[in-house]
Write a structure and sequence with these properties.
alpha+beta; Alpha-Beta Plaits; disordered N terminus
Amino acid sequence: MSQETSTLTPDSYGQVYVVSYFKPLAGKKDIIIAGMKELAAAVEENEPRTQVYEVFWDEEEGVVVVMPKYADVATAEAHKNSTHLQEAMKRSTEAVVLAAPPQTKVLTKLASFVR
């Protein structure tokens, strides 16, 4: 699993938004989902400045979607270089569970609200 990201550009508050897509091979969906849940737990435990780390299943596209929000560029870089992410990427590569390399994009927030 490779995680190539474009330039980490923060919003006007310094925060960084990312979206990643993981396409499992046929019959490997449950393995990918379990791995992503494990990774999310590691992020929650070890990355206090990662503000949001959400994992979704997109049934229509057949992909796992990960949408983190980082407090700043340094936090996003720390995640990218974290031991738990590197280990998850290694396990994914060794297990041959992805149909294609992950697609990762940095997003630019245009507007939002939370209720």
